[in-house]
Each structure stands twice: as C-alpha cells, then as structure tokens.
Amino acid sequence: MSKPVFRFAPSPNGHLHLGHALSALLNARAAVALGGRLLVRVEDIDQTRCTPELERDMFQDLAWLGLRWEQPVVRQSDCFAFYREALERLQDTGLVYPAYLTRAEIKTFVSDREAEGASWPRDPDGAPLYPGDAAVLIEEKRERRAASGASFALRLDMKKAQERIGKQLFWEELGAEGPALFEPARKIAVDASAWGDVVLARKDTPTSYHLSVVVDDARQGITDVLRGQDLYHATSVHRVLQELLALPVPRYRHHRLILGDDGRKLSKSNSDTSLRSLRAAGMTHAQLRKRIGL
Ligand code: GLU
Fold first, then answer.
1. Domain Glutamyl/glutaminyl-tRNA synthetase class Ib catalytic: where (predicted)?
2. How far is ligand 1, taken at its centre, from the CA of residue 232, in Å?
3. Local confidence pLDDT in tens for the 294 residues of the chain
4. What is the CATH number for 150?
5. Total structural domains in the chain?
C-alpha cells in the first residue's frame, strides 16, 4: 500500500491557537504512526484577511511546536487557476447558478418568516439556508441586478446535484489519535441537504473553502484528512463535490476540539489562547501538551 499523506491546512487570517496546535501535532503524530508523509497547506484564499505577516507568524508558531513538513508548501492563493477550472467543470453540468441576494436580504427574508411563526432551516454552522432568489426578488429586479453587474455568489443547486449523483454517498471515518488511529473505518452517510445551496465562488473570487479544499486534497494526493470536529458536517459537501468532479476520496479523521475556559470553541479573535501569547507568557512544550491533552 502506498504511504498515507496527511496535511495540516491552516488559514493565516489570525494567529494560531491551541486548537491549531492540537490539529498540527495530531497530523504529525498520525503521519509518523502510520508511516506517512505530512504536508502543510496555506489556505489563504481570503486575500483581505490573510496577510504575509500572519503567514510568517504562523510558520514561526509551527516551528516552535517542533512540526516538520515537506517543502514546497502549497499556498492556495497560487492555485486560483485550478479552482477556476474545477468551477467551470461544475458550471458545465448546469448545477451552478448565480445568486443575487445580499446577506442582509437573506436575513430579512428569514426573520420575516420567523416573525410569522414559521421556522427556517439552518445549516450545521447555524446559517439560514439560501431561500433562492425567486423567493425574494421579483424576476424583473433579478434581471436588472444581473444586467447592472451587481455582485453575486455562484451556488450549487444541492437538490439537483443529489438527483444527478443518484445514489447515497458515504465517507470513511477513522480515529484521529492513539490506538483509534488503527481501528476499522466507520461508514458515514452523507447528508448534504442540510447545507442547502452552498457557495462555490463569488463574482470576484473563483472559489470558496469547500471547492478549494477538495481540489487541493486531490491535487496533493491527500489520503487522510485529519481535522477538527467542527468540519465534520462539511465533509458531506466535500463528498458531493468530489463525486461531481470525479476526484479521489480521502479517508477522514475528525479530532476533538479544545474548548476555552468559557466552554466554547476557541477563536482566532481571542488572543489569550494564541500560541504567540502563551509562548510570550513562558508556556513550555510540556505545559502546552498537557493543556491540549497530548
Ligand atoms: N483552513 C481550514 C481552517 O483553518 C481547515 C480546512 C480543512 O482542514 O479542511 O479551519
């Protein structure tokens, strides 16, 4: 069997925190335990929030963690041509449509419905599902927006995509650490309807997180995607895109999350748990490992 290939794929849109340390170290440990390789991928498609300074700090943090990874590192901002090509292939299937509603319009539509007592479905991240332009904009207004060059998102028609695929999809879920790394895979049924019509790209950005991640995992020959439990449900969307684009399917290993003292998921906006500030406050490697349960 060929060597497993793992990747740690952070976004330099803020400083890395304890949760990233856990993810990076679990990827490194799993690669060693399974005789595999480790790649680092810089997920910097959001060119307004990701900066060269944050990327430099990120590599310093990873070096401090003692992480070793292969060179060269793939930077998503260098790969837009690959995403554009994948997007065009999806557009050719007729399953992608330009969606003109602004975030504020979606919000108003949903709160109006909820004020009437109707519930509106939300995706696993808590965002309301896209209602479809037709539900909100009269056709004439939609055409005017399209003609005036208004901004839009390219969305996947999830219902049609599932009909096109025509079968229940699955992924293989395995353990992320310790003896569980070697346990047999569990077969997880994909539930992509829970996400509704996901965004694949925007007028000025030829990709979204979901699209670039599946394209890169395939291009880089990733066999094992080991990442946080917060991305568990996103795997359903990734499976649909892999199927539509005929991409190879990696195994998935979602790991536990590190919670802050308030019991909530850590966020890059809270500098108290950033690796930089903990390091500056004198935290040692041993203390770090203890804090993240390694
Ligand atoms: N770039 C994503 C993040 O920092 C991780 C993507 C992934 O592992 O699939 O949350």
1. 6-281
2. 11
3. 689 999 999 999 999 999 999 999 999 999 999 999 999 999 999 999 999 999 999 999 999 999 999 999 999 999 999 999 999 999 999 999 999 998 899 999 999 988 998 889 999 999 999 988 877 888 888 889 988 889 999 999 999 999 999 999 999 999 999 999 999 999 999 999 999 999 999 998 889 999 999 999 999 999 999 999 999 999 999 999 999 999 999 999 999 999 887 888 887 777 678 999 999 999 999 999 999 999
4. 3.90.800.10
5. 2
CA of 18 to the centre of ligand 1 (A): 14
275 lines ligand 1 (CB under 6 A): no
Does residue 53 share a domain with residue 3? Answer: yes
Q: Cα(145)–Cα(139) distance, rounded to whole angstroms?
A: 10
Query: Ligand 1, atom 6: nearest CA belongs to which residue?
Result: 9
Do both 213 and 84 map to the same domain?
A: yes
Distance 292 CA to ligand 1 centre (A): 19
Q: Is the pTM of this model over 0.90?
A: yes
Q: How far apart are CA 235 and CA 206, in angstroms?
A: 21
- Ligand 1 atom nearest residue 230's Cα: 10
Q: Which atom of ligand 1 has the smallest separation from the CA of 8? A: 8
Mutate to test the pocket of ligand 1, among 13, 16, 209 (most ligand atoms within 8 A of CB): 209
